[in-house]
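Thiopurine S-methyltransferase (Piliocolobus tephrosceles), 245 aa
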Amino acid sequence: MDSSRTSLDIEEYSDTEVQKNQVLTLEEWQDKWVNGKTAFHLEQGHQLLKKHLDTFLKGKSGLRVFFPLCGKAVEMKWFANRGHSVVGVEISELGIREFFTEQNLSYTEEPITEIPGAKVFKSSSGNISLYCCSIFDFPRTNIGKFDMIWDRGALVAVNPGDRKRYADTMLSLLGKKFQYLLCVFSYDPTKHPGPPFYVPHAEIERLFGKICNIHCLEKVDAFEERHKSWGIDYLVEKLYLLTEK
């Protein structure tokens, strides 16, 4: 990486349309789980969330926390262990089962009556419920409102053409005085088609700015050796906090 690319304040790429026609189907995402192509999974959890978690929670208990496109995120256990109620949505049943197995949690499964063919998996303790369905079908469950959303690997994974629909779905799930924690990436989108897709600050403003105050909490260099195969030479991860206006 040359010296001009070491700053975390690299100017964002101006052409936000370059990836707009990129599409991955739900079946392609399911295949990633079947074939073990899940490098996006963080076995130790997300370090920026770990760093800020107690600040976000402010000693509260009993919050309802939503994990869109949750995979087998270990952070779900972090919240549950602190006395919060966790709900996740994931299209891969394999990913959901792996979460409960790897976290040594017993669980039950049952059909979701509102969504034919879909299932919900619930921890025996009752504080983790993972819905195996499309994120766009999920509101049909009438699950209620959430105090917090942890959006890591979700907005950046949604097909760019579906972002507005996705953002509106997220906003519809938020209760009063919410905290929406959002992780996105900056890189040169002309060199890598995604996912994860490139989501600049202007796009976050477009999607959420009418409803939310938007604050970038931290930027970190997320570039790893494996990212060279993407054809990029820098990758910056940004953690945003969105709150009610």
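The two ends are 39 Å apart (CA to CA). Residues 1-6 have pLDDT under 50 and may be disordered. ok done for today
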